[in-house]
Specification:
Layout (H helix, E strand, L loop, with lengths): L3 H19 L17 H4 L2 H7 L8 E6 L11 E2 L9 H13 L8 H13 L7 E5 L18 E2 L2 H10 L3 E4 L9 H10 L5 E3 L1 H4 L9 H10 L3 E4 L21 H5 L4 E4 L6 E3 L9 E3 H9 L8 E4 L11 H8 L7 E2 L15 H6 L5 H13 L1 H11 L38
Parallel strand pairs: 1-3, 3-5, 6-7, 7-8, 8-11, 11-12
Antiparallel strand pairs: 2-4, 9-10
Helix pairs in contact: 3-15, 7-9, 14-15
């Protein structure tokens, strides 16, 4: 009789084989990690020159760069033990892809190699751009207790701050769970240490952005002038608790109504959520549609940004990407981010798909593929600068992201109007 474990592995193996047969990535599964810098013909190619045309490198701050590692340098970095056992095959495979993507496969040198790789990739950029390194807090439960069992990884604020202090090419973004008993104290400390924003991933970390438990934290964020960079929409990259509904974009009205500037990671471009404007039992609606509703509300015009990291991945190309390019009136409120190291996870992108849907020409796709092999961080920037829907592309303002992270106290919030109640 076949054991349960063998049955699960047989099922997973069959599914993986079927998936590989159906979809073989354009550029293979594994990042080649070449040691050489970008060859001169690519660095001087017309596609590269066009990407930098009109761009001020000093205003280019990549606002979504994950800080990863194992803690082997004494950094305090931590990853769930589930990622090291085949009993959890999806998380095990994710770790393999992330290590390969960041070219950090030397045992005992993961932390150092990860940072070294980031610095090396920046050398191919024109002088001036910075990377905003993301700290990542533990998951917490509703009582504010730390839950390692529900956490996928942990990146300490102190480590992110130390790297930004040591390397002028880096800035940093803090991560603080608002239910922590010391949340306000931790926020004051992060602001004093130069944090440029606060990062949340509510479905994985377990905070409800619409909960009154967050109100004092929001008030303190507004006093410090710190924006909230928060994931919205379905979450597929990071495991967590059973709190998927916390990614509903409409929950972000609460921080904005408390004076916090909100940056919606990925523009909520995956999955669907409850239309809370029709009540807690409202119909299921595309999360991107809910994000668009917020973008079109006049009262949030100066309080809400969309962030375009990951929108060119195979599972997001479609209505979200096309809409974001076509709606040029949004571009002053869109911000670029790479979601590094994901641009180096080879199966996540399909240049053939983008070419078939006429975002790129075949010649442009070939150049972008060559750039990606050497520098996936630069590839992400050049790809988004090259995309077109007809004659429209992302405006240069989308890449002049520094403006959103140069900290200043927020203006007083306008009195919160009641959320519209939509009737069927």
């Amino acid at each position: 009789m076949i054991s349960r474990r063998k049955f699960l592995w047989l099922t997973a193996g069959t599914a993986a084989g079927a998936a590989a047969w159906y979809y073989w990535p354009d550029e293979g599964f594994w990042n080649p990690c070449p040691s050489a810098t970008l060859p001169r013909p690519l660095a001087e190619h017309e596609v590269m020159r066009a990407a930098w045309d009109g761009i001020d490198p000093l205003q280019v701050w990549d606002g979504h760069v994950h800080l990863a590692g194992t803690g082997d340098s004494g950094s305090g970095m931590w990853a769930s033990p589930k990622m090291d056992t085949l009993r959890h095959p999806l998380q095990w495979l994710q770790k393999k892809f992330y290590l390969n993507a960041s070219c950090t496969e030397r045992p005992g040198e993961t932390d150092r190699d990860y940072v070294g790789r980031l610095l090396a990739l920046l050398e191919d950029f024109r002088p001036g751009p910075k990377l905003l390194l993301l700290a990542f807090d533990w998951a917490h439960d509703s009582a504010g207790l730390r839950r390692e069992d529900l956490s996928a990884f942990y990146a300490p604020n102190e480590y992110a701050a130390a790297l930004a202090q040591k390397h002028p090419q880096f800035e940093w973004i803090a991560s603080i769970h608002p239910y922590r008993p010391d949340a306000l104290e931790a926020l004051d400390k992060a602001a004093a240490a130069g944090a440029r924003a606060v990062k949340w991933l509510p479905p994985a970390q377990g905070m409800d952005p619409a909960s009154p438990k967050c109100d004092k934290f929001y008030e303190a964020m507004a006093r410090h002038g710190l924006p909230l960079l928060t994931h919205a929409g379905a979450e597929q990259a990071v495991a967590g608790g059973e709190t998927a509904g916390y990614g509903n974009p409409l929950k972000l009205r609460r921080p904005m109504d408390h004076g916090v500037t909100v940056i919606v990671a990925h523009c909520a471009s995956l999955g669907s959520g409850t239309d809370l404007d029709r009540g807690p039992g409202g119909p299921s609606v595309s999360n991107f549609e809910l994000f668009a509703r917020l973008m079109d509300e006049a009262r949030y015009e100066k309080r809400l940004y969309g962030e375009i990291s990951a929108v060119t991945q195979v599972n997001r190309v479609g209505v979200p990407l096309r809409t974001l390019i076509e709606r040029s009136e949004w571009h002053a409120r869109l911000l670029n981010g790479s979601d590094y190291p994901l641009p180096a996870v080879m199966p996540l992108f399909s240049l053939q798909q983008l070419t078939a849907q006429r975002y790129l020409s075949a010649a442009q796709a070939k150049v972008l593929s060559d750039i990606r092999r050497y520098n996936p961080l630069l590839f992400d920037f050049v790809l988004k600068r090259t995309l077109r829907v007809g004659q429209k592309g992302f405006a240069k303002e989308v890449f002049h992201t520094r403006r959103a992270f140069d900290r200043a106290p927020a203006p007083p919030a306008a009195p919160a109007a009641p959320s519209p109640v939509r009737r069927k």
